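Researcher: Here's the sequence for the chain we discussed earlier.
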Amino acid sequence: MSVWKILSAGVLLAAAVLAAALLAPTAAPRPALAAETAQVVTGPPSGPGGVSTATCPSGTHLTGGGYRLQPDAAGPVRATGPTADATGWSAQAAHGSVVASAICETED
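Model: Thanks. This is the structure I predict for it:
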């Protein structure tokens, strides 16, 4: 076989592969995912030894939370965590006041 025939066959094969790739069906585009927006909601300061609860607004869901001890707090935090219905975050200081914070997320 001559070099010319080998090169011609190679070029034809490459052209066929390229044409097949260009004509092959492509996957349908994926739908865009909704962006999530986070917001931090704080509860009212608790009374001494009381509970502060931050509740997520309607249309959002809880993704986390925390607390901030007030200057009058002395001692550890007695409890902190999501509310029983998972719509907010609560915290209770052993002595003094605490402010709960909830991280709430919505899909746009």
